[in-house]
């Protein structure tokens, strides 16, 4: 067996044992199977198993007791928070917000951004906004807020719908789910932000839910990857 093959084999065994430790197949304090049992389980040589166990030990997943065996350590999961604020996370903090349009739309338009499937009869208020730093557009935002389909949007003025929509997403009693992805394909948005075809954009999706866990709507924001400063703590 070549050195390259040996390395690959013990890495595979290491990764599998590590996964079983992390998903609690092997509980903290539990003794791992013996070398001979692991050799038989993975159909590998003794030296391969020993290399895998040594790597687990070096990375803190197990500890060894002479003449007794190898035991699983307590693994403390570290939790990191990704901090994002629509204004202060921008390298060029937007000073102006321009409303481009306000419309009542069917759910189909919102479904391209989220997997949530609310009542089919519901409709959305769609607000399109552009956030600017001086004359430079730095973020394009779409807001979809559910509304009763029986309401006639044209019976209210545009400012009323904007205030209601922004009020929902800024409400402290609203629960939010945050999704981050990279979007390189939306040319119409890139044009609005004066980005080149090869430029990458972050797509930031936030879903909004009431205290009763009822879906209220979403916001989808697009910005150049070079213009957003995410902080992890």
TrEMBL record:
GO terms for molecular function: DNA binding; DNA-binding transcription factor activity. Transmembrane segments: none annotated. Keywords: DNA-binding, Transcription, Transcription regulation. Pfam families: GntR (PF00392). Residues 7-75 form the HTH gntR-type domain. One of its GO terms (biological process) is negative regulation of DNA-templated transcription. Coiled coil: none annotated. SUPFAM superfamilies: Winged helix' DNA-binding domain (SSF46785). InterPro entries: Bact_HTH_transcr_reg (IPR050679), Tscrpt_reg_HTH_GntR (IPR000524), WH-like_DNA-bd_sf (IPR036388), WH_DNA-bd_sf (IPR036390). This is HTH gntR-type domain-containing protein. It comes from Eubacterium callanderi.
């Amino acid at each position: 067996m070549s050195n390259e093959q040996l390395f690959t084999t013990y890495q595979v065994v290491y990764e599998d044992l590590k996964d079983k430790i992390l998903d609690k197949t092997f509980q903290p304090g539990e003794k791992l199977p013996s070398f001979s049992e692991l050799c038989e389980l993975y159909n590998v040589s003794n030296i391969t198993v020993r290399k895998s166990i040594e790597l687990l030990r070096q990375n803190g997943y197990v500890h060894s007791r002479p003449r007794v065996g190898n035991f699983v350590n307590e693994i403390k999961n570290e939790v990191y928070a990704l901090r994002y604020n629509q204004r202060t996370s921008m390298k060029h903090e937007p000073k102006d917000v321009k409303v481009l349009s306000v419309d009542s739309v069917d759910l189909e338009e919102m479904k391209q951004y989220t997997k949530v499937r609310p009542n089919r009869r519901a409709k959305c208020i769609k607000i399109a906004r552009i956030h600017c730093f001086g004359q430079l557009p730095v973020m394009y935002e779409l807001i979809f807020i559910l509304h009763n389909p029986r309401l006639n949007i044209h019976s209210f003025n545009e400012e009323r719908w904007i205030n209601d929509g922004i009020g929902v997403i800024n409400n402290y009693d609203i629960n939010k789910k945050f999704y981050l992805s990279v979007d390189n394909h939306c040319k119409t948005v890139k044009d609005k932000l004066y980005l080149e075809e090869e430029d990458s954009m972050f797509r930031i999706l936030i879903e909004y839910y009431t205290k009763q866990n009822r879906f209220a709507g979403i916001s989808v924001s697009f910005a150049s990857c070079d213009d957003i400063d995410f902080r992890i703590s």
